[in-house]
Amino acid sequence: MTISGKQLIAGNWTDGRAGNFHGVNPATGENLEPAFTAADEFQVTEAVDAASACATEFANLAPAKRAEFLNACADEIMNLGDELLERVSAETGYPRARAEGERGRTCGQLRLFADWIVQGEYLDARIDVALPDRQPLPRPDLRSFNQALGPVAVFGASNFPLAFSVAGGDTAAAFAAGCPVIVKAHNSHPGTSELVAQAIDKAVKSTGMPAGVFSLILGSGRRVGAELVKAPGVKAVGFTGSLQGGMALFNLANARPEPIPVFAEMGSINPVVLLPEALKEKAETIAEGFVGSLTLGTGQFCVNPGLVLAVEGEELDRFIAATGEALSKVGAGVMLNENTLSGYQSGVARLRDQDGVEQVAAGEAAGSEAGFTCQAGLLTVDGKNFLANKELQEEVFGPMSLVVKCRDQQELLQAVSALQGQLTGTLQCTESELANYGELVEVLRQKVGRVVCNNFPTGVEVCHSMMHGGPFPAATDARFTSVGTMSIARFVRPICFQNYPEALLPDALKNSNPLNISRLVNGEKSSDAI
């Protein structure tokens, strides 16, 4: 396919009217062709209006029809072949294997959602039939299910050009829920975004979806993104990125005459707690796995392990020494763009300047060649300084981690208690320690969305039970995940019908159960007709 540099608005490819920009190869610093046009506020409005116009039609489609569309999106993305993989690598610096893996994850989650919505569980259909003879008061006929919210604005993530971008988890969940989507593409990978949008556009047309069900907008995140969030027709926002960016959208959404939910996943430092017996048994093995997790993808994951907490002593010294040895063999890595590199360098410098912080290990130094490359590293600080300084909890997006050397078990518990909300918390421990450190484990559970035991947080499996979210500031709402089939819940709301004519009810609530789904009928699960 040819990359045009245009916007896709309700099935029509059109030039933006607010200037031009280029994608950049982060490995070389060179501009990539072609130039891309940026949308103006009127084009944003056009996309939102088209989404609003078809929202009811799309929401009322049978789940099987939307499943057909989701599968077609996956098929068309695969049909892009090598062109997509090559563009991903050119715009991100990721190796081909990473691009292939992310493409597989993207298409896999589209197919997972397709299979799930046909089963109907996400609808949470409930029926309590009328009891006209009940004493002392009769009960009316009451039926409820989950209804699509309406058009969703999705913001592409810089670090996942496929899996958290144009056809990524937010878009797949919104489509599955029955919501049209307007994607604000990330400027770091505009060519990748357009290719995927071309694939979705083909799927829209081949499955007979309404044209307004999908649009792709390019341009300044601050300007175009703000217009998108403020547009009255938008009913929810999906975002993966920085705390600053997520909170900017959250504040805009809550300042509207009609506030809307912003489901923002904003990253974290993902603490790794090393307990004494585990360190004694396998400090070197833990260090090897830790370095692999820390430097995977040049540390550019929202679940990158940016903090280690442990009690000081010989075992922790062994871990630090083994980590340093492994890090020394890690080459300089390519970061996604110039801003990401600048943020990493300034974040590392800020950490180094804090009281008591020392750098104890580093990877190979970045060369002087063009491109956006960085050096991995490991810092240490004692527990007292960590507890006294909130700045040591600020995320540094990249392959740098801070080891907190606590004086004793009590200080370790204090350090875990002082943590802000996180996406993940990891425990390296023996089974007996997991039982004996019950208070610490319980505190950690209150801080995170996912507890990882004797593993590492990178590698977010897309499945039914995954929770990718957490207490603020990891996410704006700890009740929801941005990965897995539970993520559909962000884009639906329950609606109840009382004494509604049976023939006019949504199919999910009709007596005959035409969708053949499991429903809660008078408090009991059943797939039978009533």
TrEMBL record:
Keywords: Oxidoreductase. The keyword tRNA processing does not apply. It holds the Pfam family Aldedh. SUPFAM superfamilies: ALDH-like. InterPro entries: Ald_DH/histidinol_DH, Ald_DH_C, Ald_DH_N, Aldehyde_DH_dom, Aldehyde_DH_Superfamily, ALDH_KGSADH. The lineage of its organism: Bacteria, Pseudomonadati, Pseudomonadota, Gammaproteobacteria, Cellvibrionales. Residues 13-470 form the Aldehyde dehydrogenase domain. CDD domains: ALDH_KGSADH (cd07129). This is Aldehyde dehydrogenase (NADP(+)). It comes from Microbulbifer celer. PANTHER family: ALDEHYDE DEHYDROGENASE-RELATED, SUCCINATE-SEMIALDEHYDE DEHYDROGENASE, MITOCHONDRIAL. The keyword Repeat does not apply.
